[in-house]
Amino acid sequence: MRFSKVATLATFLSIAAASAAQNYHVADHWKLGGQGGWDYLLSDDAAHRLYITHNSRVEVLDTTTGKPIGAITGLKSTHGVAFNSDGKTGYVSDGAGNVIVVFNRADLSVQATVAAGTNPDGIAFEPATKTIWAFNGRSNNVSVMDTSSNTIVATLPLPGKPEFPQVDDHGSVYVNIEDKNEIVKLDAAGRKPVATWPLTGCESPSGMAIDRGKHRLFSVCDGGKMVVVDYESGKVLGLANIGDSPDAAGFDPKHALAFSSNGGDGTLTIVDSAKPGFPVAQTLNTEKGARTMALDVSTGRIYLATAQFGPAPAATEAMPHPRRSVVPDSFEIIVVAP
């Protein structure tokens, strides 16, 4: 009887843990307003801050209250944010300005503006070499910046249009190549590409998350797929089913869950990376347009950005598929909690 009770309790706890892992819900909406579009978000977990690239500025929120702390302003068209491991410095990719903006995380003041390639988009800090890697979406290359001097020390060509990068914290940088359906691995110390891996089953990879414990990359793709890659061998480990038109991904190492924010159908896909076949643990309805996200690993919260949309402008030869216009002052952050 004693063994039976223990076994029953263990089974109950296992089921409860699995259920809790799937029980994500929309906990809040933080209304920010303002004009124009947005791109990546980044959580500073220790400081309880959320950085949101929003048109020509970077909004900074207190994640304990949802209230604005301030903003990094005077930019042209922001895309991504990265943090130095010193805890003091941050970096913004200003696409229309073709620059990397260096800022003070304490007071959000701009410290330097450094010329990069054409339309820097995804950006990452590589801690082993203390360099910033700004991936230039229109010049198909990456600008490598020495953070001790804020100078560009290398410009490396890439085989196509780079999207989101990740670093393994041991000197390797990985980036999705959107128009070639590939991942490129770069050696930070040698400042050179060292491998190119096809993403079989993936079309137009954009967002990427990393599991440094199991050496995996999660790339979200058009066509409703997340491709999982072993970043030591480059082998595709599997494909998970996700929603439509994703643009960002996240990974929670505490619970072995991978996330995809899908703007096309307004969902957040939660994938169980610990199980064979990478099954979907939950599909949560969010809002259409909520295509980018940030994960706060310390709390398990996920933040997504979206807005209301008006009609799209007329198609032109230069822009055959124009985006729908953003309704002024409708911009918001959706807070998802476990």
Descriptive overview:
This protein has a single domain, classed as YVTN repeat-like/Quinoprotein amine dehydrogenase (Methylamine Dehydrogenase, Chain H). It starts with a helix and ends with a strand. It contains one helix and 28 strands. The chain is globular and about 45 Å long. The chain is mainly beta. It has a four-stranded antiparallel beta sheet with strand order 1-28-27-26, with no helix packed on it. Strands 2-3-4-5 form a four-stranded antiparallel beta sheet, with no helix packed on it.
Question: What portion of residues belong to β-strands?
Answer: over 45%
What characterizes the major β-sheet? 4 strands, antiparallel
What general outline do the C-alpha atoms trace? Answer: globular
Per CATH, the architecture is 7 Propeller
Q: Radius of gyration, rounded?
A: 20 Å
Low-confidence stretches: 1-20
- Spatial sequence of strands, sheet with the most strands: 1-28-27-26
Q: How many structural domains in the coordinates?
A: 1
Instruction: Spell the H/E element sequence.
Output: HEEEEEEEEEEEEEEEEEEEEEEEEEEEE
Number of helices: 1
Q: Give the structural class.
A: mainly beta
Overall pLDDT: 93
DSSP strand count: 28
**CATH topology assignment:** Methylamine Dehydrogenase, Chain H
Helix content: under 10%
Distance between the termini: 35 Å
CATH H-tier superfamily: YVTN repeat-like/Quinoprotein amine dehydrogenase
- For this structure, what is the CATH class? Mainly Beta
Quaternary status of these chains?
single chain
